[in-house]
Write a structure and sequence with these properties.
9-stranded antiparallel sheet, about 325 residues, single chain, alpha+beta
């Protein structure tokens, strides 16, 4: 895996100069936004004060639409940012990796993971990275899945609301052991004092609760499997320790499952990891470093989980 020092050298020699033009476009977008704000929005507020509520609201809406037009006028900026920044960082980390800014994990793969059993009503994602690290094929992307809830009040009026099932990075990798069936590792949100809640959470699953001997792992995760013996075969002592260590790197919830010789992993977060920040210079190393750190963390899952080790039947 590339080090931060290697990336800083690459940044100084190859990346920094090429980003000057892109950063100039970022500044133009921000400049147009600020000019629009003062030239259009402030007069509309004056109309609001002088003429009253409805005219003021109409003026504000018109101002907002014009403002939005100016804001998005450089439609190619995000596309070019991903090609010139994210794509190059991915290639720098490993030329065996491919970046597809519009691609994402499919819904069928998300469902196959058996991590979330709630029916998905809409989903989206982007920033797909796929390839091979040593012996392990993997891919990951940002992914968001939601379900719809329709309620009716006492007057017969219906209201539709959307609820997030999962939002974050979703990861699929070839596991280093061959097995069938499914073993699911979920955050232990209730701790060990509410054992009945663990069973209740698993009531809708075909997998049954598995009791493991590792107290540190069991404090943080609940395990469900359709085969108690295979669950212990998949979750070796070393892998459980790696999962615990991996969890320490991330402050958000971590979900894992092992289904038919593949590992699925979801790390929840509420941040668009690979999007440009209009308010920060693209030629600053600390800005570029954040993208590098996020990508290294995602690609590093192969090493974190020791997926390249083939000590069992898989080659």
């Amino acid at each position: 895996m590339k080090t931060l020092e290697e990336f800083e050298n690459y940044y100084n020699k190859s990346l920094k100069t090429d980003l000057v033009n892109l950063d100039a476009r970022r500044k133009q977008v921000v400049k147009r936004f600020l000019i629009s704000l003062f030239a259009i929005f402030i007069p509309s507020m004056a109309i609001f004060i002088l003429t009253g509520l409805y005219v003021g609201i109409a003026a504000s809406v018109i101002a907002f639409i014009i403002l939005l037009f100016f804001w998005v006028r450089d439609k190619l900026f995000v596309k070019d940012f991903k090609e010139q920044v994210i794509n190059r960082i991915v290639y720098f980390i490993s030329p065996d990796l491919t970046y597809d800014p519009k691609g994402h994990i499919s819904l069928s793969e998300f469902v196959t993971s058996r991590l979330f059993l709630t029916s998905v009503d809409r989903y989206n994602g982007d920033d797909l990275v796929y390839g091979t690290i040593d012996k392990t094929e993997f891919r990951f992307s940002e992914f968001k899945a939601e379900y719809k809830q329709v309620t009716t009040d006492s007057k017969g009026r219906t209201r539709t609301s959307w609820h997030t099932i999962f939002r974050g990075i979703f990861y699929i990798a070839d596991f280093n052991k061959e097995f069938t069936g499914s073993t699911v590792v979920l955050p232990n949100v209730f701790g060990n004092r509410f054992g009945f809640m663990k069973k209740l959470m698993g009531a809708t699953r075909r997998e049954k609760l598995v009791k493991l001997e590792d107290p540190d792992f069991s404090r943080q995760f609940n395990v469900y499997s359709d085969d108690q013996v295979k669950a212990r075969y998949v979750l070796s002592t070393s892998l459980m320790q790696r999962i615990v260590d991996f969890r320490k790197k991330h402050k958000n919830n971590v979900y894992l499952s092992f289904v038919d010789s593949k590992m699925y992993l979801g790390v929840s977060h509420n941040k668009n990891l690979f999007e440009p920040n209009y308010l920060r210079s693209l030629v600053r190393f600390d800005v570029l470093r954040e993208y590098f750190d996020d990508l290294v963390l995602a690609v590093g899952i192969v090493e974190d989980m020791n997926l390249n080790t083939r000590i069992w039947t898989k080659t």
